[in-house]
Amino acid sequence: MESTKKYALITGATSGIGYELAKLFAGDGYNLVIVARTQDDLDRVAEELGGTGIEVITLAKDLFIPESASQIHGLISARGIKIDVLVNDAGQGVYGEFVNNELSRELDIIQLNISSLVSLTKFFLKEMVQRGDGKILNVSSIASKAPGPWQAVYHGTKAFVQSFTEAIRAEVKDKGVVVTALLPGVTDTDFFNKADMTESKVAQDEQKMADPADVAKDGYKALMNGDDMVVSGLKNKLMVAMGAITPDSIQAKQMQKMQEPVGHEDAK
User: Fold this and answer.
1) Which of 7, 30, 154, 220 is flagged as catalytic?
2) Is 154 designated active site?
3) How far apart are the first and last CA of the chain?
């Protein structure tokens, strides 16, 4: 595959949906700038995808740290690279009842899921608008569409991402830039482990989890088609559709049942 000389910047690119998206962009000849916290993981992906004839640039940056987004932009600018596609995939959750969770960890989740995403979007969207060309894919979630007891902060961050994405899309719709939101549901990634959520009911049935490769394909197709958003998976589409006509108070109760730990009712 010969490089198109276009560059896609992907955060969270070494695992899960981000990794699958990186493979799709590489398959279409995009050069990659991949971002993750661990250099070893970045090197592994770079070695794999670089064999397809594209350039893969690795940036080991921790987006829990506020300065990381500006450092990423600075490093890319210093190399004279134009980012044609930005994929904001990096994100995490924290599990537990809000009153019991550590505030510092929840603020870290807000930094990663919201502040770093907003910063990267600001830096690269301005350049895209100036050129009159570019694409941004923000990985939202069906969690953006309902209150989430046991994951109150995570659901709140994804509600922000969804609203933010729809708003900036409206702002730039006539400026040559595509902005798309991808809304996965429960997906077979390391999310539940990182969120300390493996004991929740929703994490117990792996057979009901979506394949991250399928989710990535849905997001990639929607972005290339210029769609505003895509809910990945029929079950999730139905859930979001039902949620649109269900009061938030009822959705919160339903989500509480889905996300509570196994055996929680028995322990009451």
Assistant:
1) 154
2) yes
3) 58
